[in-house]
Design the sequence.
């Protein structure tokens, strides 16, 4: 029995429980099952083609029996395929022989009829990715987006000191800053949901040559298009031996963009915790440091950032490598494709890290207020803007001289405003401002998410 403590990959060891949902899509057994699915459905589709006179239409009962080959596929079945492969030294041929063992002899010639291995593989790998994205990854991402949105709306009016270039800047609200991430993720989620991945089923060099030689009167491009669409993919009708993976690269890059947004979020949350404006809930029995008992480390955001780095390195390599193949075919894609599950595994693990991290943070509103009150110079932007409105050409310079590198508090800012020769209304407006209230439309624009 497999023991996670002896695993080579952290995804199969330390993190196996966190990513177990992906095993059904990216394990070796899963690849076998998807290959069988493609072969069986192709066989059934062939039997429905009227011009293929040597193959009678399969009855509903025959179709049901064939489909059980992949529906009931388990680890014992996978071992049987592996045993066959040990003799054939060819993984797709082993699939063909395995299906033969589960159907009547008259169907044997029609299994893998006129196909090349890539016809089965490109569809299988693409379906594995698409199904995992749709059924596991995107729902988790949507849940994270929902939690982030809830946190943003709850704190839409909680004022917070901004930092640009690491220096105090025009205040914002905590909710508005989270809303920025919500909006960015929303766009990527939409693209994940609407993306169409392509599949190819046109023989050894993309010409349907074997198909046409056997049945020249069949409209093979139309047959292929209909079959690929029935599997939920878009047909790519103009290829070499391989489907060039451009659509898969687009999907990989989509996940890269999600990861980059989430890395940005992780780094901001880490900084907010470091500044003390966010606190983390204590968990009984948890240790933050082997020597410093006071610490509660932001490990969830740190782990997510690290996992995102691994994921994006793999995803970018997949996206850059897979669309390139020497002339009509080389096999450099074969070993690379097997790692698409690893790339999504680390991306999925990062989602779980961030979700857990968000559930543990609380706002330290006193610290936020203290930070704001320690930086009255941020109100200078409003003062110089109103001076500009009044036609003062030296407005910016006047405020720069007063505030740059200087300690400004409520009293000194108030005295400066009172000394200005501006309208009573503008003076009243400025005197009514504070770093905490100087947030413009921040709380309102959160409603855009």
Sequence:
């Amino acid at each position: 029995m497999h023991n996670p403590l002896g695993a080579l990959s952290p995804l199969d060891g330390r993190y196996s429980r966190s990513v177990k949902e992906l095993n059904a899509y990216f394990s070796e057994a899963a690849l076998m099952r998807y290959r069988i699915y493609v072969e069986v459905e192709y066989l059934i589709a062939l039997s429905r083609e009227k011009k293929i006179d040597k193959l009678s239409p399969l009855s509903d009962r025959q179709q049901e029996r064939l489909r059980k080959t992949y529906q009931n596929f388990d680890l014992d079945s996978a071992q049987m395929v592996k045993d066959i492969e040990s003799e054939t030294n060819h993984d797709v041929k082993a699939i063909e022989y395995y299906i033969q063992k589960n159907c009547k002899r008259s169907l044997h010639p029609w299994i893998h009829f006129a196909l090349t291995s890539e016809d089965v593989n490109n569809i299988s790998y693409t379906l594995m990715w698409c199904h995992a994205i749709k059924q596991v990854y995107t729902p988790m991402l949507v849940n994270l987006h929902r939690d982030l949105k809830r946190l943003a709306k709850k704190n839409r009016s909680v004022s917070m000191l901004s930092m640009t270039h690491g220096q105090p800047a025009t205040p914002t609200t905590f909710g508005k800053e989270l809303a920025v991430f919500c909006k960015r993720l929303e766009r990527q989620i939409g693209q994940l949901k609407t993306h169409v991945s392509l599949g190819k089923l046109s023989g050894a060099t993309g010409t349907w040559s074997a198909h046409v030689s056997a049945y020249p009167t069949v409209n093979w491009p139309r047959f292929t298009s209909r079959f690929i669409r029935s599997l939920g993919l878009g047909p790519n009708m103009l290829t070499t031996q391989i489907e060039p993976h451009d659509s898969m690269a687009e999907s990989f890059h989509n996940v890269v963009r999600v990861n980059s947004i989430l890395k940005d979020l992780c780094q901001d949350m880490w900084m907010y915790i470091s500044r003390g404006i966010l606190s983390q809930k204590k968990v009984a029995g948890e240790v933050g440091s082997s020597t410093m008992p006071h610490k509660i480390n932001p490990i969830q955001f740190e782990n997510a950032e690290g996992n995102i780095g691994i994921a994006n390195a793999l995803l970018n390599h997949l996206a850059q490598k897979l669309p390139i193949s020497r002339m009509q075919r080389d096999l450099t894609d074969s070993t690379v494709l097997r790692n698409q599950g690893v790339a999504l595994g680390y991306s999925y693990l990062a989602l779980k890290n961030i979700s857990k991290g968000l559930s543990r943070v609380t706002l330290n509103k006193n610290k936020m207020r203290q930070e704001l009150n320690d930086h009255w110079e941020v109100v200078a932007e409003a003062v110089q803007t109103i001076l500009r409105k009044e036609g003062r050409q030296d407005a910016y310079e006047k405020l720069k001289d007063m505030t740059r590198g200087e300690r400004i508090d409520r009293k000194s800012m108030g005295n400066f405003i009172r000394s200005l020769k501006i309208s009573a209304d503008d003076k009243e407006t400025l005197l009514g401002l504070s770093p905490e209230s100087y947030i413009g439309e921040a709380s309102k624009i959160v409603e855009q998410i």
